[in-house]
């Protein structure tokens, strides 16, 4: 049974806590995912992707049921409670995003949370970092196959100021050698539409987004990510209702106008040295 304090630490809004408590989960579906999550704790991405329930609300219950398992792993590693709970609170954050997008209780990104529940991702200040091993299929410049790096992720929790980014990167430089010394890291990577060259060239050069994106050296071949630009800017999907989207900011206007002009937003790859 999840306590009110645990719901708070997991980042649940009051609405989502009430919805979670009112939901009647499928015990078979919940147990199946919970068993898979427990088996993956500490495997850092080496386990196969779990099979998720059709109803993502059952996934929420499985995550709640396995909080003690991932918390135990964090404790055994010596990871401070503050960082442990801040990382697991992405569950509540994703529920809030789902409510903004769809207007109700659910977890569109239930597949994403598995990385937090196996001990692979940590929230360190403004940014999140996923510890992973570079493969021959997905190389990173200057990094050997089998070497470990950290992938940068940008939660929707406020401004992306240079000062907050600097502080977060410094936390990452200290965190991983201390708590994962067997996986030394010297490179951080990013895969995001925020380093689309068109975005970086057409936003004001003193904007937080541009300053953030230009920290990373591009590499590899970008991939089309039209929906990513729409979703992360407006929290909706599709391009059928462009004229109905808000146009209050420079970013909103840029995203819509490029699509109307026949352009395609892309997600690019970048890296920086820690």
Element string (H = helix, E = strand): HHHHHHHHEEEHEHHEHHE
Terminus-to-terminus distance: 41 Å
Give Rg in angstroms.
Answer: 19 Å
Number of strands: 6
Helix coverage percent: 40-55%
Overall mean confidence score, pLDDT: 96
Q: What is the subunit arrangement here?
A: single chain
Task: Enumerate how many helices there are, as a single number.
Answer: 13
The biggest sheet amounts to: 6 strands, mixed
Task: Sum up the overall morphology in one term.
Answer: globular
Assess the beta-strand content as a share of residues.
5-15%
Uncertain spans: none
| Helix/strand class | alpha+beta
Strand order of the largest sheet: 1-2-3-4-6-5
Q: Short description, anyone?
A:
This protein is an alpha+beta fold and 274 residues long.
Care to describe what's here?
This protein has a 6-stranded mixed sheet with strand order 1-2-3-4-6-5. The chain contains 13 helices and 6 strands. The protein has helices at 4-9, 14-22, 27-40, 56-65, 67-77, 81-88, 90-102, 114-117, 162-179, 197-202, 208-213, 226-234, 250-260, and strands spanning 121-124, 127-133, 148-153, 185-192, 217-224, 266-273. Helices cover 46% and strands 15% of the residues. It is an alpha+beta fold and 274 residues long. Helix 3 crosses helix 4, helix 5 packs antiparallel against helix 6 and helix 12 (226-234) runs antiparallel to helix 13. Residues 121-272 form the GNAT-like C-terminal domain. This is Acyltransferase.
């Amino acid at each position: 049974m999840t306590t009110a304090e645990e719901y708070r630490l997991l980042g649940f809004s009051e609405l989502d806590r009430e919805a979670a408590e009112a939901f009647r989960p499928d015990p078979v579906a919940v147990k199946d995912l919970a068993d898979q999550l427990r088996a993956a704790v500490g495997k850092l991405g080496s386990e196969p992707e779990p099979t998720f329930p059709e109803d993502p609300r059952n996934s929420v219950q499985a995550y709640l049921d396995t909080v003690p398992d991932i918390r135990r792993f964090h404790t055994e590693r010596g990871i401070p409670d503050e960082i442990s709970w801040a990382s697991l609170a992405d569950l509540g954050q994703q529920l809030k995003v789902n409510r903004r997008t769809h207007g109700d209780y659910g977890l569109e990104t239930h597949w994403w949370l598995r990385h937090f529940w196996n001990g692979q991702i940590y929230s360190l200040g403004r940014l999140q970092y996923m510890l992973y091993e570079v493969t021959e299929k997905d190389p990173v410049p200057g990094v050997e196959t089998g070497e470990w790096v950290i992938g940068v992720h940008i939660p929707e929790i406020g401004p992306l100021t240079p000062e907050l980014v600097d502080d977060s990167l410094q936390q990452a430089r200290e965190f991983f050698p201390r708590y994962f010394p067997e996986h030394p890291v010297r490179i951080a990577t990013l895969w995001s539409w925020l380093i689309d060259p068109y975005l970086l060239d057409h936003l004001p050069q003193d904007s937080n987004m541009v300053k953030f994106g230009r920290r990373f050296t591009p590499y590899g071949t970008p991939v089309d990510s039209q929906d990513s630009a729409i979703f992360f800017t407006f929290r909706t999907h599709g391009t059928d209702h462009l004229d109905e989207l808000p146009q209050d900011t420079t970013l909103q206007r840029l995203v819509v106008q490029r699509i109307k002009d026949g352009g395609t937003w892309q997600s690019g790859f970048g890296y920086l040295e820690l």
